[in-house]
Description:
Layout lengths: L5 E2 L5 H10 L4 H12 L14 H10 E2 L4 E7 L5 E6 L5 E8 L4 E4 L3 E2 L17 E2 L2 H19 L5 E4 L9 H12 L11 E5 L3 H9 L5 E5 L5 H7 L8 H15 L3 E6 L8 H11 L6 E5 L14 H13 L4 E4 L12 H4 L4
Amino acid sequence: MQTAKKNIRHLSQKQINEYFEAIGEKKFRAMQVWEWLWLKHGHSFDAMTNLSKDLRSKLSEEFSLPALKIDTTQYSADGTIKSRFLTFDGHLVEGVLIPTDERKTACVSSQIGCSLSCKFCATGYMDRKRNLNFDEIYDEVVLINQQSERVYEKKLSNIVFMGMGEPLLNYKNVLKAIEKISAPDGLGMSPKRITVSTAGVAKMIRQLGDDKVKFKLALSLHAANDKKRHEIMPINDTNNIKSLVEALNYFYKQTQNEITFEYILFRNFNDSLKDADELIRIYRQVPADLVNIIEYNPIDAASFMKPEEETINAFMSYLEKHKVNARLRHSRGKDIDAACGQLANKESH
């Protein structure tokens, strides 16, 4: 029985060097291949044009080179670009380019589907099929960066892990992808421009601290007491607010990295001044530098609504009055399937 070919991008530079040595090829050939894989983003062996045809054919007999492909792209009137990517094994996953004058941000996914079932999130209504491999996450960033360069003539300035899936439940691949994204022989992006957003896995937040990561962390809070948070985010059963506050403080002590709270406003659920008070109380227990208050992008599967403008304004004013560094993030791409998972949830036609 034929064994599956090994994905060449899962080999280290040392292993690639050893392979080339074993087949009697010169050392610089191994370097050329490494550059095609990570610097030049060659997504097939045929693309490696400075190698002989024989060598390319030998590599394709020996190894596989699965890569993400763009399946569908949607362009919003506000400049947001949403892409649905196709994996080598036929799954759909999505990423978004969010442009502003100052920055071009890629919002990327870490899993195909999600196991957390948050009640307001389109991805929460999908099953988790599998984790994305680190090279697939890398491809998302590469493809979105290419869009940014083509449409805006600017490279990506920031990356947020806020797409489909829970990054801390795909810990190794997410960290390996970030290592590649920030490596000089990868995309060379500063980890300080990368934010990993979690629904709150206390044990893994502590692990990030122990691993002394360099990137920023955002906690999707969305409700500032356990009863309400449990209603919309079942993960709160095993990771309550107290355990998350302790984990965030530990993370900060170990890394000194910026921490942000994410808080989506839902009409008549978490948008009162009493809710604001509870949010302020949590904000003061953690060395957080920012609270992102997010406008809700409604989805078909859930009954949540965006609050009235005056409610949002009153909430923001109350936070400001109490010296909370809060920023209102307007929903982008409203005219396309911009909420996480909406596009991947649609059947391919």
